[in-house]
Design goal:
Layout (H helix, E strand, L loop, with lengths): L11 H15 L18 H13 L8 H17 L3 E9 L6 E11 L8 E6 L22 H18 L8 E6 L15 H9 L14 E6 L8 E3 L1 H6 L1 H13 L5 E5 L8 H5 L4 E5 L18 H16 L2
Parallel strand pairs: 3-4, 3-5, 5-8, 6-7
Antiparallel strand pairs: 1-2, 2-4
Helix pairs in contact: 1-2, 2-4, 2-9, 3-4, 4-9
The structure holds zinc ion.
Amino acid sequence: MSSRVPDPAGIFLPLRLAAAALALALLVWPGRAPGAGSEKDVFSGERALELVVAQCELGPRIPGSPGNAALRRLIHDTAGRCGFPSREQCFPAVLPLTGDEVEICNVVVSIPGGGDGPGLWVGAHFDTRPHCDRDPDPAARLEPLVGANDGASGVAVLLHLMEVLAGRVPPAGVELLFFDGEDAGLGGDPRGFCLGSGRMAESWGEFGSPLPQAAPRGLILLDMVGDRDLLIPQEAYSLQYAPEWTRTVFERAQALGLDAFQPFPGPPVFDDHVPFLRRGIPALDLIDFDYRFWHTLEDTPNKCSAGSLAQVGSLVLDLILTP
Ligand SMILES: [Zn+2]
């Protein structure tokens, strides 16, 4: 429910309807022309940026809101169009930031692999924070976040990866994990954050879990990966609890010449990878936490760049195609 989201006189509704039409138009990615060589093997930062804009046009994606439901539909539709099965994991929760009782729904998309080696899990949160509580203007602090970088950037990479991988069989299976309820906690209390990923990690191995039984090679979490000045260090929890996996991924980035990835220790971020680290799964959070528009009204698509998204998408695509 988004009843606490200010929407005077319903002015956002026509905007949302227009946005939904735009998002539908964006559902179809032409890809490459037949015979155009290996262009479809290349991750397009421009396309990913389009998908950032399309998500923001849906309105706030607060758990339980119409924008959240619309984005879930877009994820399922994209998966279906690309030929991949998708499923949901839903449960009731109270959002600490608003007190709203909502249903939280994670989405998992499976890309089958050709071999029986360990798969790769790639995650991002698709919900947006209900309030811009770090906005310099006090009057804006109860407004909902647009969430271009904080939310939409990681999801855009996952959505475009589906498009790039449509019709292909990677060497090992890939699970794309779309987490709900990441960003509705109260500052200073990590227990209210990562509600969706917490439940998903807890349920791993249980009957009804949306995750495969077998442990993956590793999990890569994408959060705030669209910043124009992208610089991703080795997040501290990842480095401490999954050092080998962290180094492996950063070495791959260096080998590919992706200069946004800097192999030096970064700050610890309590994020959707933590519940998986607790389950013993090697999990790496790719995050640029040095973003001055974080949790403000200014977290809009013009703060993101195609070049940044291309670096992140190219790295993940390489890890998928060459285990
Ligand atoms: Zn956030």
